[in-house]
Amino acid sequence: MLCSSTRIILRKNQILGPISAFLLLTNQFSNNSKQTHLRFSHRSSVSLFSKPIRTEFSRPLLFDFRSVRAMASQSQTESVHNFIVKDAKGNDVDLSKYKGKVLLIVNVASQCGLTNSNYTELNQVYEKYKDQGLEILAFPCNQFGAQEPGSNEQILEFACTRFKAEFPIFDKVDVNGNNAAPLYKFLKSSKGGIFGDSIKWNFSKFLVDKDGNVIDRYAPTTSPLSIEKDVKKALGIA
């Protein structure tokens, strides 16, 4: 049976990183214990993070396991910036290049009933806010009604010639199913839809903040101009 207080022997002035401290403590105490008093065998200086904590013999130190778990988990949290994708010409693009930018990520199609309105409004939003830190990342997808059947070259020509799109067009991807692009798996897990996580149709949209965190998700029928207020807020100009 575990006690509410336990002696841990540490070398004088020993420094523990957050993960090491967490493992040491969880080996000593019950996971069901919310708070535990630690007693040290002699005067020592123990650093769990950046500031040392001075302790003396028989003087208890109150420790909260939940705080350590939260900090350890947060340090491993993914963001959009962790991913590498392919552009339309097959080159690797490290999305960390967009750190400090607000992103609007959209799965596009050339033969959809939503194509004209979305490409037109995406261009308008991009032209208005690109100099203030907005980037639109377009990922062609042929999973919805086979409405993006062309090659990457044909898709680029369509977007750039017909709509004068200046934002980047990436490699065609799957957004649902076992072969879904890792980026889209992350986007969906970060912001699920009303009827489940799967992408429902062409021109679903994800708004991503400057740190790579998914802020919001919008349905295919949500027009780009209607989310302008959210874009401005993410840019810090609302």
TrEMBL record:
Reaction(s) the record says it catalyses: a hydroperoxy polyunsaturated fatty acid + 2 glutathione = a hydroxy polyunsaturated fatty acid + glutathione disulfide + H2O
A Pfam short name: GSHPx
Keywords: Oxidoreductase, Peroxidase
Residue runs in coiled coils: none
Superkingdom of origin: Eukaryota
Annotated Gene3D superfamilies: Glutaredoxin
Statement: the UniProt record of this protein carries the keyword Transferase: no
Entry's Gene Ontology BP terms: response to oxidative stress
Function text: Protects cells and enzymes from oxidative damage, by catalyzing the reduction of hydrogen peroxide, lipid peroxides and organic hydroperoxide, by glutathione.
Keyword Oxidoreductase: yes
UniProt cross-references to InterPro entries, sorted A to Z: Glutathione_peroxidase, GPX_AS, GPX_CS, Thioredoxin-like_sf, Thioredoxin_domain
Gene Ontology CC terms, in alphabetical order: cytosol
Domain Thioredoxin, residue spans: 74-236
GO MF entry, a single one: phospholipid-hydroperoxide glutathione peroxidase activity
Stated name of the protein: Glutathione peroxidase
Family, per entry: Belongs to the glutathione peroxidase family.
